[in-house]
Amino acid sequence: MTTQASQLPSSFSKDLLSLGEISSSEFRSLLDLAEVLRAEHQQRKFLHQVSGSTLAVLFEKPSTRTRVSFEVGMFELGGHAIILDSKELQASRGETPEDTARALSVFCSAIAARVFSHETLERYAAASSVPVINALSDLYHPCQTLADFQTIKQYKRKLKGLKIAWIGDGNNVCNSFLIGASLSGSNVTVACPEKYAPLPQAIEIANHQSEFSGSKIEIIDSASEAATDADVVVTDTFVSMGQDSEKQARAQDFLPEYQVNEELMARAKPSAIFMHCLPAHRGEEVTASVLDGPQSVVWQEAENRLHSQKSLLYTLLKRPRSSKQKMFMP
Ligand code: CP
Ligand code: NVA
Question: Which of 15, 137, 165, 260 minimizes the number of CB atoms within 10 Å of its CB?
Fold first, then answer.
């Protein structure tokens, strides 16, 4: 008897830190609800509500899309978001992540945090009595992945069996993307220089899920091979936040082979779409002609951050409170 992907055990009971916590059926449900919420947004009819809920959104690093999509998302869900700059919190004066998480749990229904070190998120999650959502860490960016697969499905009408090329740095966005691909049954070839390969733990989670979903995850060094006949071509910056001192070395390691330009896109299917989580650096990881060209879906991808995060928030906030969440109650 074969085990169905939907039968995989899931620990998505409280937090979303990597995407490794969720099963393929939960992933599908989040994407399906995101599409319903996209339609509600278009019609300005916000039927899904979490009124009375407050989300704390904490930033150790800059953000445009994540910050605004969480704030607008909570508004459209009938709740409230508090945007917090970590430099203005007591954390900047030494309060521990555990105490910060406990304090936020007292007031808020969920916490989203963008942090330098993934370990900080794990400490928030362990101490928090409310859901903790990774709004980007050095290792993962699961909210981006939800939007990315919503976008791919929107344009390709399916996920299973698609051929996706990830070109460039095997970074935080790539790590979550691989897990998302393996949850959806699509195939990803990552083309990167060997020392910029994705996180082994992310590959392991993706490979495990792939046994059930039938995905194929490959890591190679040839960008042109990865792009050949691809349905989707994806890239991200060569220099993630926190890596600015490596800017020159990275430019040398990635250019010219790992730039997504018209020549590379010509290897993909004529119907291929180009994706980038943004912010983009024209002339570095992607040329302006591709980023601003007809195959680029990056602005819809950015918009889908709103819908997919609302789907996530609605799903988490509408769940019955677990015993852990009652931990501090008399
Ligand atoms: N893609 C993304 O997370 O964008 P921001 O850094 O602007 O939030
Ligand atoms: N990999 C990039 C993503 C930015 C949204 C970074 O971590 O800076």
Answer: 15
The Å distance, Cα 140 to ligand 2 centre, comes to 9
Residue 127 near residue 102 (C-beta atoms within 8 A): yes
- DSSP collapsed to 3 states, 96-145: CHHHHHHHHHHHCCEEEEECCCHHHHHHHHHHCCCCEEECCCCCCCHHHH
| CA dist list (Å): 18 to 105, 180, 197, 298 | 21, 10, 17, 22
Distances (CA, A) of 69 to 30, 37, 65, 307, 309: 16, 13, 6, 8, 8
State the amino acid at position 264 in one-letter form: L
- Give me the amino acid identity at 120: T
pLDDT in tens, 48-105: 999 999 999 999 999 999 999 999 999 999 999 999 999 999 999 999 999 999 999 9
Give the C-alpha separation, 215 to 209, whole Å: 8
* Region for 284 from its dihedrals, namely left if φ exceeds 0, alpha if ψ lies in -120 to 50, beta otherwise: alpha
The CB-side HSE value for 162 (13 A sphere, CA atoms) comes to 26
Of the candidates 236, 250, 295, 325, the residue annotated as catalytic is: 236
pTM of the model: 0.94
Task: Assess contact for 130 and 9: CB atoms under 8 A.
Answer: no
Among the listed residues 225, 220, 164, 163, the one whose alpha carbon sits nearest the alpha carbon of residue 192: 220
Whether residue 277 lies in the annotated active site: yes
- Do 190 and 220 meet the contact criterion of CB atoms below 8 Å apart? yes
Q: Where are the beta strands (DSSP E) in the chain?
A: 54-59, 80-85, 110-114, 132-134, 163-167, 187-191, 217-220, 232-235, 273-276
Structural domains of the chain, ranges and CATH numbers in brackets: 24-140+305-318 (3.40.50.1370), 144-302 (3.40.50.1370)
